[in-house]
Task: inverse folding
């Protein structure tokens, strides 16, 4: 070693201290050797001088060796600490290593010949430990920072949850408040169009019809927002009934037929079901069908729209709605079912809407235990495939069922069942093939 090293030897036994001193001075190294015989003198010199090594006897009086080791750590004095011991007291040296010493050697191993190698090994070990401790401190600091960040994120998440809850409550409240005047506007518009309330001129009739149609459109938007708020808060109600899905398809097509006819669109339906009865919520089934059919009509300028119902298996039915509309780009598939998401997000977009329809029906289908899939190609058209179970499973305590079912002959069955089963569906079979 070319640099001149400062080494402190701490030993209360003067003979052994001098022996180490002589071994150090006789070794082929450039050193300055300092000596201390007790705890206080060694601490005094360590606080004033920076040493490259400290040689410490394992057995200073009254456990002073352990005290010195701990003091060095407490005072932040960083120096390679070499413990000198004897085989019979090796366990004491191990305790000192655990307390922060760098390495220990038996006194019999110390000589002028071995010291250069011992110092090199101790320095290498000390540097490795220093780097490891620094890395550990860095890792600890990073972990603390991450923990603080996680706490911050948790706090922000709580704020977001609270904000989302308040938003849902606001949407539900404002939507509920809007429905009352909208229903009044629609109701009075319908009354004005009845002949018994007085004859209107053609211009007046046109204006009232516009009020009525725009009122219905606005009410549909309000209902979408209200349903979305209920879905977000987990308060959307499901009422399960035995129902004839072919009738719901028929009624829903009747609702959209006028708009389809104004665009010269053809509507087709093919019901390939041996049994058209299912156990589900008729309002929600109609909502799914109406939304998909309305979208098909809205985004189809020419051609046709098909509705197909078929059995996937005995427990699942598939509803397919296909159109020849403008289609959807594949890059928009992944977010088409997101709330408030529309392909055209511009303020002057061609097609109106809240962007909640597909998000709502996607949630409804999932709650029913089904799934919805999309296939589409720009300029060719879209195909929405909805798989729903014949019987939705709801908690028994929440089930209240009443159904009004027509058979092929047109008779009505009014009945209430406390716990409907798939076997209850077998007594009525609907018309499997209807064309429009």
Result:
């Amino acid at each position: 070693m070319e640099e001149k090293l400062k080494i402190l030897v701490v030993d209360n036994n003067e003979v052994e201290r001098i022996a180490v001193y002589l071994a150090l001075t006789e070794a082929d190294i450039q050193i300055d050797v300092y000596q201390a015989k007790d705890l206080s003198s060694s601490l005094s010199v360590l606080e004033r001088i920076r040493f490259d090594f400290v040689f410490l006897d394992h057995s200073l009086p009254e456990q002073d060796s352990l005290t010195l080791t701990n003091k060095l750590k407490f005072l932040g004095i960083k120096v390679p600490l070499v413990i000198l011991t004897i085989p019979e007291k090796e366990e004491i040296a191990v305790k000192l290593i655990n307390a922060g010493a760098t390495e220990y050697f038996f006194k019999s191993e110390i000589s002028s010949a071995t010291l250069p190698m011992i110092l090199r090994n101790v320095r290498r070990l000390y540097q490795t430990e220093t780097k490891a401790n620094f890395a550990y401190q860095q890792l600890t600091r990073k972990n603390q920072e991450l923990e603080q960040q996680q706490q911050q994120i948790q706090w922000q998440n709580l704020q977001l949850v609270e904000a989302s809850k308040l938003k849902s409550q606001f949407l539900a409240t404002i939507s509920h408040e809007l429905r009352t005047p909208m229903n009044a506007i629609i109701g009075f518009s319908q009354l004005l169009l009845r002949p018994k309330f007085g004859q209107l001129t053609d211009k007046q009739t046109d204006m009232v019809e516009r009020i009525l149609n725009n009122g219905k459109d606005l009410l549909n938007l309000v209902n979408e927002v209200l349903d979305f708020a209920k879905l977000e808060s987990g308060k959307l109600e499901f009422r399960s009934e035995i129902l004839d899905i072919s009738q719901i398809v028929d009624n829903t097509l009747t609702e959209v037929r006028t708009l389809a006819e104004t665009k010269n669109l053809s509507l087709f339906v093919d019901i390939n079901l041996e049994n058209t009865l299912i156990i589900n919520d008729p309002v929600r089934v109609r909502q799914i069908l109406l939304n998909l059919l309305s979208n098909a009509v809205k985004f189809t300028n020419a051609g046709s729209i098909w509705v197909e119902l078929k059995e996937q298996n005995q427990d699942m039915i598939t509803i397919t709605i296909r159109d020849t509309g403008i289609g959807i780009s594949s890059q928009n598939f992944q977010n088409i079912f997101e709330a408030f998401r529309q392909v055209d997000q511009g303020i002057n977009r061609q097609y109106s809407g809240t962007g909640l329809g597909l998000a709502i029906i996607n949630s409804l289908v999932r709650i029913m235990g089904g799934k919805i899939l999309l296939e589409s190609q720009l300029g060719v058209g879209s195909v929405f495939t909805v798989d729903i179970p014949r019987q939705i499973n709801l908690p028994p305590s929440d089930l209240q069922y009443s159904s009004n079912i027509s058979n092929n002959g047109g008779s009505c069955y009014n009945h209430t069942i406390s716990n409907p089963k798939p076997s209850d569906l077998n007594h009525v079979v609907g018309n499997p093939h209807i064309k429009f």
